[in-house]
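lol forgot to send this yesterday, sorry. struct tokens for the thing we talked abt
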């Protein structure tokens, strides 16, 4: 199921909530600090409250964001919004980093080159789904000695000989290239970013929401991974871009 809506995300989420719709995962990148061109102002507190209502218990919100630097100081909007999430009932399950492998060169400034964005992972209670991405362990099969506590006895430690497994859970710093932008949208997700999060925090046939759909990359990832998708976009030009991209993916899928 692919369900696309053009309009204000607060109004559309109200309608979805009234219809009893619940989603399992939200993956989105909201417009921040005039870093993108949008006609309407964003009330993040109202959005956070609506996301809490529409999300299933154990559901997750992945909130990709960055801050504008003005007059030599970062805005801190990302952190302020993270606090809003926690104040409105969410857990901050993880603070992840998207490290860009091909960042834009920075003009000379009294700071290091900006190469990352935040990916805050909020959950409504304990996450009900976690399918961790595994990576090869360089020291696989190495044996070492250690001590560990016995669960049944307080302050009692026993010696153990352990063997490092072939794989381990990936780190919370993900290295990905910025997507080549072939659309009129000013900031296109690399497809790998929503793909990894959708794999991690949802299962096949789960319902994923992107309230700031932009160019529709989250919807494309959902289609590729057999997830249902609701996308909302207020900007008419961006909505048309997203609709065309998602429909093209659907046609390719069934051809």
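and heres what i got for the seq, position by position
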């Amino acid at each position: 199921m692919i369900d696309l809506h053009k309009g204000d995300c607060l109004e559309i989420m109200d309608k979805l909530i009234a219809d009893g719709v619940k989603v399992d995962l939200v993956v989105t990148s909201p417009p921040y600090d005039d870093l993108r061109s949008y006609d309407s102002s964003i009330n993040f507190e109202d959005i956070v409250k609506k996301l809490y209502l529409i999300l299933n218990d154990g559901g997750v919100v992945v909130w990709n964001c960055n801050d504008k630097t003005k007059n030599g100081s970062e805005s801190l909007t990302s952190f302020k919004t993270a606090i809003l999430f926690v104040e409105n009932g969410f857990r901050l399950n993880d603070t992840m980093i998207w490290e860009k492998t091909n960042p834009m060169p920075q003009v000379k400034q009294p700071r290091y080159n900006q190469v990352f964005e935040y990916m805050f992972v909020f959950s409504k209670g304990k996450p009900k789904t976690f399918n961790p991405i595994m990576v090869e362990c360089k020291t696989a099969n190495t044996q070492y000695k250690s001590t560990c506590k016995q669960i049944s006895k307080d302050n009692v430690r026993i010696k153990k000989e352990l063997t490092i497994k072939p794989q381990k859970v990936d780190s919370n710093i993900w290295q990905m290239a910025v997507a080549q932008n072939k659309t009129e949208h000013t900031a296109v997700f690399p497809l790998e970013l929503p793909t990894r999060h959708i794999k991690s925090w949802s299962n096949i046939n789960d319902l994923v929401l992107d309230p700031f759909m932009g160019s529709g990359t989250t919807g494309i990832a959902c289609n590729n991974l057999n997830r249902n998708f609701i996308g909302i976009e207020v900007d008419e030009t961006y909505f048309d871009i997203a609709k065309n991209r998602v429909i093209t993916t659907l046609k390719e899928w069934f051809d």
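Residues 236-254 form the longest helix (19 residues). anyway ping me if u want another try
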